[in-house]
Amino acid sequence: MTIKIDQQITGYSVVTDESEQGQGQQQPQVASSQEEADVVHVTPPDDRPERLEGSTYKIKTPLSEHALYVTINDVIMHEGTGKEHRRPFEIFINSKNMEHFQWIVALTRVLSGVFRKGGDVGFLVEELRSVFDPAGGYFKKGGRYMPSLVAELGEVLEMHLQKIGMIDKPELSGEMKAKKEKAEETGALQNATMCGNCNAVAVVRMDGCNMCLECGDSKCG
Fold first, then answer.
1. What pTM did the predictor assign?
2. What are phi and psi of 78, to 5 degrees?
3. What is the side-by-side strand order in the sheet with 201-206?
4. How far apart are CA 50 and CA 54, in angstroms?
């Protein structure tokens, strides 16, 4: 006997002689509307939530009279559980200075895209900080040298990732803290030179050796 199937097949079973005799001819099974209603649609991980929390950082350089304001918004993962943590989701950079508008917009879109992909984003810090301006860098307030504006954006990102606990903040050892206090008391920091490792103006000569009092870099080992 030929059976015409005019509905979508959603499953099948093998009919044996015994089952056919005991239960009669099997009919094709059709999914009910209730089964279709139970389908759970998973939201893509890069969909923007309705509300985000973040921080805004001010960058003031001698290159422009107008400051830059960097806003990094975070998404809260596993909220309300023991695994709750924050991740950067997007970044915005605003300024009255329109000179760098084009590349700043491009940079924020690329960085935001990397944030949304998840995973370890700490590598962005070193990538940004290693950018050097061929026209020369500048010294920010406090005497720290910045090789470029992009490098300072990398420092801001590092500060934010440390704040939300994604990367650890390096701390000076007790010995280094003592040496720094001694240098401040003796006035040695007034003649400090720039460190080639961390770009801080904090290299002083102590105990017959040049040492950076910010990162601990020393030629003496």
1. 0.65
2. 55, 45
3. 193-194, 201-206, 209-212
4. 13
Return d(Cα 151, Cα 136) in angstroms, integer: 12
Pick from 60, 55, 70, 76: nearest CA to 162 = 55
Q: What's the token pair of residue 28?
A: 């094709």
Q: Enumerate residues 6+ apart whose C-beta is below 8 A from 145.
A: 137, 138, 139, 194, 199, 200, 201
Residues 127, 153 contacting (CB under 8 angstroms): no
Indicate the pLDDT class of residue 201, thresholds 50, 70 and 90.
confident
77 - beta bridge partners?
85
Asked if residue 169 lies in contact with residue 147, where contact means CB atoms within 8 angstroms, the answer is no
Q: Please give the Cα distance from 178 to 75 (Å, whole number).
A: 40
d(CA 62, CA 67): 9
Q: CA geometry: angle at 151 spanning 220 and 197, to 5°?
A: 0
Q: What is the pLDDT of residues 24-73, one digit of tens each?
A: 555 545 444 454 445 444 344 557 888 899 999 999 999 899 999 999 99
Reported as a single tens digit per residue, the pLDDT across 107-135 is 999 999 999 998 899 999 999 999 999 98
User: Which amino acid is present at 214?
Assistant: E
Give the span between the Cα atoms of 69 and 54, in whole angstroms.
13
Closest CA to 97 of 56, 62, 131: 62
Helix axes 149-163, 101-117, angle to 10 degrees: 30
